[in-house]
Write a structure and sequence with these properties.
The protein is of the alpha/beta class and 845 residues long. 40% of the residues lie in helices and 19% in strands. The structure holds pyridoxal-5'-phosphate.
């Protein structure tokens, strides 16, 4: 090909509305209905045609249309209102500035393989991306010093078509970057900033772009430049495509390329947040850069760890990438050399003994100072899942805590409902999200809430019908089949939505295990029910695609036709319609596979009622009156039994509780139902939102990690070096540590309030007694283990012989069937012992 220069030719914006372009390039618009209205009003058809993408819209709109609105007083008034909001947003005092003024320079870098900000920018596949997008929006709202780092996929995630046979067809759109609301980052010479990386046998160049999200930036990396070979240009082609070689190269681009790009731009993050294992290679790159500055590998590793935090997102094994030794060698041999270590040392950072490979999740867990799962249940499941990698720790001590996911309220809240909330709760309800404000939902008259819900339901029905019609026309279906869509769904009929990725553990077809019972439910003469399904299956997931076909086929059977609908191409736009307009949101994951799930939180925000298995976030939220629970909180050994019981429970809950409640009317109004809507809103919204979530990350993770990182870096990395030396010493000498004698007044029977005393002699060899802690551990004896453990650190009494030390202490026993023992572990004011899980439990005594 011959070289050429790129130019985008757009109509010149009339002076009175010249700031539209600024707005088009700031995703702030995506959570302000007024801002969207400002574009849409200019030319509604074109807005739809442009895929709700303001940048593309401004490229396509005609000068005449712009000049027309620029003369329209109503439009100009609207324009002024939006920019007043916008300017105020950018200048007002923020939560972060108020709470952490001394940390305003401590930038948090948030690395994620996907970001779901808006339907016009499809670089997300599902929940992980949506969460990252909402996280960024709240980080902006709360005023955090924050940057995102991700990849700019040329083809995004696929667009789904369902053909006349019910088969999913994946269509990859070609994103024209000129038409996206993104801008190049320029280098000092005014060229597009390009970062160079080494891959085996060649260099690869990546372009850096930026996306504005209110007060923050997200930097996106793009390999599609003529400087790269054809195959390398495709490395940022699609999300989660390709084989292992492709995946690792993509993850190197994100992790290694991301670090390089930030440094090139002069961004020096103080906290590094790895959002899911894909980005964990940033750890290796940072170690490499510190070694280049003269630190030893071990010290560099401690310094990196002190400022790195990690969020794990799934208990599904396929969600954790594992690369073979050969693959790592192929890509990282030069890096190991630069770091001055053998390849083995690199492999040890993340070696997975079970799966015999280099595990990205372990790389992150082993080299972060704080780690979390995304709901309380998921935290617990993760602790259990990774127990084997923390030799010696009790399951309750595994250092993976939980910060439960939320949603960005303004993004997901229907405008009509928002206005109602504003009227009765005040505008601050979406900003300061405490429970006191949301208590005022009770002040909304039942009739008004129901009327707005019904209005949104009618909109959802319109949306569903036109989506289905479009699909049928494209598939050349008979005109009868196309026209009958206008009769589908009704605002008077209970409508249940189910839309999510078609991963098998989500069990979209749970109800269809008993088609006879479902037929009766749907076709009940007085209390009919309608179902709307939607969702994509990963192109490599055949089981998921079969599920789509199964539901498609059933939806065409006589008893289900027009009553069970399957819509194609679930995305943010469709999610918004469904989550604002159906009555009930159904969620049926096989416990405990759903890490959190967030769509049900969006549903609750819009007054929908959740019916869900007790998985992910739901056990935390469900209080018996704010929705419906399916199944129990017990763990099953057998999936078939679990599916059978959950299916039965789902039917019973629908038949006996949910459906009757919905149809019970007083003067045409389902009072009891509306009461539940309000209760659901006020108990769920103030907790399950990203403002609470990002504040929690800030308080518990970002600020402590910023302090720790600074401590480790100060005085020329003095503390980093000290910790690295101490850990090395403990590792080398731990074998010598031995229990010599344990004395206790403990007896098989003791009385409430009695004191348990222990005296322990331990041979510490060459170790200093200050670098260990000896503990009395006590807990409820359950089966063969201890639960709810308590730990008391024993006092050091004296050295009684060469290297042998005496410790003693006591504990007042609580009531119950208890077990106790003693143990010794590393102790240091500079790092938590869980980072070096060398624990020696006393042999039987
Ligand atoms: C919110 C959302 C998700 C994630 O929600 P789940 O409950 O995990 O399904 C996925 N896709 C879209 C489009 C969403 O809006």
């Amino acid at each position: 090909m011959f070289p050429f220069r790129v130019v985008s030719v757009t109509p010149k914006l009339p002076a009175s509305i010249c700031r539209l372009k600024e707005l088009a390039y700031d995703f702030w618009f995506s959570w302000k209905p007024e801002a969207i209205e400002l574009f849409r009003t200019v030319k509604p058809d074109l807005w739809r045609e442009a895929g709700h993408n303001p940048a593309r819209f401004l490229i396509k709109v005609s000068s005449e249309d712009l000049e027309r609105v620029a003369r329209d007083d109503d439009y100009l008034a609207m324009y002024r209102r939006v920019f007043e909001l916008y300017d105020r947003y950018k200048s007002e005092e923020t939560w972060f500035a108020e709470h952490y003024p001394e940390h305003k320079e401590d930038v948090v870098a948030y690395f994620s393989a996907e970001f779901g900000l808006h339907e016009s920018h499809p670089i997300y596949s599902g929940g992980l991306g949506l969460l990252a997008g909402d996280h960024c929006k709240s980080a902006s709202d709360l005023g955090l010093p924050f940057v995102g780092v991700g990849l700019l996929y040329k083809h995004g995630y696929f667009t789904q078509k369902i053909n006349a046979e019910g088969r999913q067809e994946a269509v990859y759109p070609h994103l024209n970057f000129i038409e996206l609301p993104i801008t190049p980052v320029y280098d000092a010479k005014g060229g597009h900033l390009t970062v160079k990386l080494e891959l085996p046998g060649r260099d690869i160049f990546i372009l850096v772009w930026k996306v504005k999200v209110g007060r923050i930036w997200i930097y996106l990396l793009d390999a599609d430049t003529p400087k790269n070979t054809g195959d390398d240009r495709r490395l940022t082609g699609t999300l989660y495509g390709g084989d292992h070689q492709y995946r690792i190269a993509q993850e190197i681009l994100l992790g290694v390329g991301g670090v390089k790009a930030l440094y090139e731009m002069g961004v020096l993050p103080r906290v590094w947040h790895i959002n899911e294992g894909h980005a964990a290679f940033l750890i290796l790159q940072r170690i490499r850069e510190l070694v280049a500055k003269g630190l030893t590998f071990n010290t560099a590793r401690e310094v990196v760890r002190a400022s790195t935090i990690f969020t794990t997102h799934t208990p599904v094994p396929a969600g954790h990438d594992v690369f073979s030794k050969e693959t790592i060698e192929n890509f990282f041999a030069p890096a190991a050399k630069d770091m001055g270590v053998e390849l083995e040392t690199l492999l040890e950072l993340a070696w997975d003994r079970e799966r015999e490979g280099f595990n990205m999740t372990l790389l992150a867990l082993n080299n972060s100072c704080l780690c979390n799962g995304v709901s309380r249940l998921h935290g617990k499941v993760s602790r259990k899942m990774f127990l084997g990698h923390y030799d010696g720790l009790h399951p309750e001590e595994i250092p993976i805590t939980a910060i439960t996911n939320g949603v960005h309220l303004e993004t997901w809240l229907a405008k009509e409902l928002r206005d109602l909330y504003f009227r009765y709760l005040g505008k601050e309800c979406v900003e300061k999200v405490g429970p006191e404000i949301w208590e005022k939902v009770e002040n909304i008259p039942d009739e008004e809430l129901w009327r707005v819900h019904r209005f949104l339901k009618v909109q959802m029905i319109d949306f569903a019908r036109s989506s289905l019609k479009r699909q049928r026309m494209r598939n050349y279906e008979l005109s009868k089949r196309i026209h009958e869509v206008d009769e589908y769904l009704s605002p008077d009929v209970l409508t249940i939505g189910f839309a999510r990725r078609f991963a098998t553990y989500k069990r979209a077809a749970l109800l269809f295990r008993d088609p006879g019972r479902l037929k009766q439910l749907i076709n009940h003469p007085e209390r009919p029910v309608r179902f709307v399904f939607a969702g994509k299956a990963h192109p490599a997931d055949m089981a998921g695609q079969d599920l789509i076909k199964r539901i498609y086929d059933l939806s065409n059977e006589a008893d289900f036709r027009g009553k069970v609908l399957l819509l194609e191409d679930y995305d943010i736009h469709m999610a918004r319609h469904l989550l604002q307009g159906v009555d009930v949101w159904m969620n049926t994951p096989r416990r405990p596979m759903e890490a959190s799930g967030t769509s049900g939180q969006k549903a609750a925000l819009n007054g929908l009622i959740n019916i869900s298995t007790l998985d992910g976030w739901w056990p935390e939220a469900y209080d018996g009156n704010n929705g419906f629970a399916v199944g129990t909180e017990c763990n099953y050994l057998n999936e078939e039994t679990q599916d059978q019981e959950d299916c039965h429970s789902l039917f019973v809950t629908l038949e006996e509780k949910l459906i009757p409640m919905y149809y019970r009317r007083e003067a045409g109004l389902p009072r009891e139902w509306v009461r539940m809507m309000k209760h659901s809103i006020k108990t769920i919204v103030p907790v399950f939102n990203t403002h609470r979530m990002v504040a929690e990350y800030t308080n518990k993770f970002y600020i402590p990690a910023a302090h720790r990182g600074n401590d480790f870096r100060n005085n020329n990395y003095e503390q980093g070096e000290r910790v690295s030396r101490l850990k090395q010493l403990l590792r080398e000498h731990w074998d010598q540590v031995k229990f010599v004698r344990i004395e206790t007044n403990g007896a098989p029977k003791m009385y409430t309030g009695q004191k348990l005393e222990v005296k322990v002699d331990i041979d510490l060899g060459q170790l200093d007694h200050g670098s260990v802690a000896v503990e009395l551990v006590c807990g409820n004896a359950v089966d063969y283990g201890l639960k709810r453990i308590k730990r008391v650190v024993l006092d050091h009494i004296e050295e009684i012989g060469s290297g042998v030390h005496r410790f003693s202490g006591s504990l007042v026993l609580p009531q119950g069937g208890l077990g106790y023992t003693v143990r010794v572990r590393p102790a240091s004011p500079d790092f938590p012992y869980t980072e070096l899980p060398l624990v020696k439990w006393a042999p039987g005594f």
